Automatic annotation (TrEMBL):
Organism: Paenibacillus haidiansis
Ranges where the ABC transporter domain occurs: 5-254
Stated name of the protein: Dipeptide ABC transporter ATP-binding protein
Family: Belongs to the ABC transporter superfamily.
Presence of the UniProt keyword Nucleotide-binding in the record: yes
PROSITE patterns: ABC_TRANSPORTER_1, ABC_TRANSPORTER_2
Molecular-function GO terms, alphabetical: ATP binding
Gene3D superfamilies listed in its UniProt record: P-loop containing nucleotide triphosphate hydrolases (3.40.50.300)
Any matching Pfam family: ABC_tran
Keywords from the UniProt entry: ATP-binding, Nucleotide-binding, Transport
Chain segments annotated as transmembrane: none
C-alpha cells in the first residue's frame, strides 16, 4: 500500500539578512534535504533539540510555510504544486496541533466559536456544525458546558484538548502534533498522549509526533527520525532505535532518557559544546564538532542517510564508509 505521506528532499532555507544595502546569498538551512515516508495509521516521531528544524519540517510539509524545495506527496497527490485554493481544500485532510495551547487558541473566542470556525470556512452547513461540535467536545473528554467558555478559563491540559478537537473538526487523515505535551505538567502529559492514542484508534488517524527528547515518543511512535541541524541523522522502528541506536547523536540523546531499571541504563554520554548555529553549520558531518567518534573524513564529507539494517537508516561515516571505519581503528 502507498504511504499516506512521502516527503522527498524537503528544504526550507531562510535568507540571512545582510545589512542595509547588501543582498546576501547566505541562508539558514533550517530544513536541509529531509526525506521520509509515513504509512497510514502510523505514528512517526520527529525528535531533536530545539532549532534542529523539526517544527519547520512539520509546518513545511503542510505548506503552512512554503518549502524552498523538495516534493511532498500526500494521499497520492503532489501537494507542492497545488494552488492556494486547491491547497485550502486539501487542508481538511492535514491538520496541526500546536505545542502551546495558551497561544494557539484565540482568547476572544469561546470554545464553540473556536471549533465552529474550520467547519464554517470549509462550508459545513450550520445544522451539521452544531452536531459535529457536540461530538468533538465529547470525544476529547470535555462537556457541552465547556463550549460557552473562553480559553483562559481552562487548565493547560483542557486547552490542549480544545486544540485537538479543533484539529479533528474536519476529519483529517494526518495530524502533525508539534510537541503537543511539552508545555504541560508531567502529570497531565500522559493523559493527553493517551487521548491522542485513543483518537488514533477511533478515527484511523496518522500522526507525525514532534518532540525534543526521546522519552515521550517511546510509547506512542511506531518509527522515529532523529534530526540534527536541519537533517535527519537516523530513522528506525522505535524498538530498534531504543535497543540498537547507531548514530552517535542518537546514542547521546538516548543516554539522557530516564530509565527506571539501572541495569539497562546506558552510561550517560555528555556532548561537548553547544549545538552550532544553523546559520553557520559545520561542513562535513554537521555533528562532527560534538561527536566523540569524529574522524578526519567527518570534517570534510557529509554522510548521507543510508540503509544500515532492516528499516534502519543512518547518516554516519562509521556505518556507510567501511574503509574509514578501519582507518579509525
Ligand atoms: Fe560522528 Fe563522523 Fe558519524 Fe558524524 S559521521 S556522527 S562526526 S562519526
Ligand atoms: Mg519547535
Amino acid at each position: 500500500q502507498q504511504p499516506l505521506l512521502q516527503v522527498e528532499h524537503l528544504k526550507k532555507y531562510f535568507p540571512v539578512s545582510g545589512g542595509m544595502f547588501r543582498k546576501t546569498d547566505q541562508f539558514v538551512k533550517a530544513v536541509d534535504d529531509v526525506s521520509f515516508s509515513v504509512s497510514r495509521g502510523e505514528t512517526f516521531g520527529l525528535v531533536g533539540e530545539s532549532g534542529c528544524g523539526k517544527s519547520t519540517t512539520g509546518r513545511s510539509l503542510l505548506r503552512l510555510i512554503e518549502p524552498s524545495g523538495g516534493r511532498i506527496v500526500f494521499d497520492g497527490e503532489d501537494i507542492t504544486s497545488l494552488s492556494a485554493e486547491q491547497l485550502r481544500r486539501k487542508r481538511r485532510d492535514m491538520q496541526i496541533v500546536f505545542q502551546d495551547p495558551f497561544s494557539s487558541l484565540d482568547p476572544r473566542h469561546t470554545v464553540r466559536q473556536i471549533l465552529e470556525e474550520p467547519l464554517r470556512v470549509h462550508g459545513v452547513p450550520a445544522k451539521e456544525r452544531q452536531s459535529t461540535i457536540n461530538r468533538l467536545i465529547d470525544v476529547v473528554g470535555l462537556t457541552k458546558s465547556h463550549l460557552q467558555r473562553y480559553p483562559h478559563q481552562f487548565s493547560g491540559g483542557q486547552r490542549q484538548r480544545v486544540g485537538i478537537a479543533r484539529a479533528l473538526a474536519l476529519q483529517p487523515k494526518l495530524i502533525v502534533a508539534d510537541e503537543p505535551v511539552s508545555a504541560l505538567d508531567v502529570s497531565i502529559q500522559s493523559q493527553v498522549v493517551n487521548l491522542l492514542q485513543d483518537l488514533q484508534a477511533e478515527f484511523g488517524l496518522t500522526y507525525i509526533f514532534i518532540a525534543h527528547d526521546l522519552s515521550v515518543v517511546k510509547h506512542i511512535c511506531n518509527r522515529v527520525a532523529v534530526m540534527y541541524l536541519g537533517r535527519i541523522v537516523e530513522i528506525a522502528d522505535t524498538e530498534e532505535l531504543y535497543a540498537s541506536p547507531q548514530h552517535p547523536y542518537t546514542k547521546a540523546l538516548l543516554s539522557a532518557v530516564p530509565e527506571p531499571d539501572p541495569d539497562v541504563k546506558p552510561e550517560r554520554i555528555l556532548l561537548q559544546g553547544e549545538v552550532p548555529s544553523p546559520a553557520n553549520a559545520p561542513v562535513g558531518c554537521a555533528f562532527h564538532t560534538r561527536c566523540p567518534l569524529a574522524m578526519d573524513i567527518c570534517r570534510s564529507k557529509r554522510p548521507e542517510l543510508a540503509a544500515t539494517g532492516s528499516g534502519h537508516q543512518t547518516a554516519c561515516h562509521l556505518f556507510t564508509e567501511p574503509l574509514s571505519k578501519e582507518e579509525a581503528i
